[in-house]
Amino acid sequence: MEMHQVRYFLAVAQLLNFTRAAEECNVTQPSLTRAIKQLEAELGGDLFRRERPAAQLTELGQRMHPLLKQCYDAAIGARSLASSFRSGEIGALRIALTHSIDLALLIPHLNEIRRQFNRLEFRFLRGSGREVGDFLKKGEAELGIAAEIDEAWDRLDVWPLFTESFELVVGDGHRLAGRSSVELDDLRSELLLSRTFCEHARRISASLREHGIDIEQGHEVSNERDLIELVEAEMGIAMVPHTSPVPERLTRAAVTGLDARRTVNLYGVAGRQRTAVGNAVMRMLRGADWREIAG
What we know:
Elements: H1 3-15, H2 18-25, H3 29-43, E1 48-49, E2 56-57, H4 59-87, E3 90-98, H5 107-114, E4 119-127, H6 129-137, E5 143-146, E6 156-170, E7 181-183, E8 192-195, H7 201-210, E9 219-221, H8 224-232, E10 237-241, E11 251-256, E12 261-269, H9 276-287, H10 291-294
Helix pairs in contact: 1-2, 1-3, 1-4, 2-3
């Protein structure tokens, strides 16, 4: 089935006249008639009763009309969308982030990109480090942002964006609240919350354990919102990256003697063609000055 056959069918169905439909489609009547006969042969029956002065849709024609119109409209829409993408009128960005990356880090850059396109569509995917790697490998995401991807695929391009430290967060009524820094010894009697969704959770736990901090009695938390609520309720304290959003009623503090840092990276797939939006975002993120954000 060819689209021009469908177009000719829809014209005749609307005008109920082969001659006028041929004029509407800017083709000769024999060409239009021949195309419709080919369509009828493919569908296995007559679509029109060829009566004078007007043609009439057969039962098959009536049943096929909404389906063929939907097919034709979808094809026209697809062509229009493809043309808009090629001309740069529409852009699309599929980006994967691990659960520990705050989307607010990207907002200024995404707003800047929006000004370069008449219409821009975003698709954000969330997952663990391994899942972000899978999104990239399968082509479901064009770019990825993570502190670490548990993926040794040799086609991954990696561009470090910034390195940040982990800080202690406590409730405003906690005994450590208000301090700009605390000692490791201050943590020994505390209930620590483990951010299991963070790529560096095991590393942080191992580092604390090496310093004799008991982390076995802590709670495991699978998302940032629950973590914040538990800290606010003073049901524990937590180590979070500097860029993690924390309400003003909570207190941040550096932990003296604990070397806990992470590097946030931008990931792409080497050799895979990127969209105009993907290239623009990649250049913008790599060229950004992250020093103020990363502290």
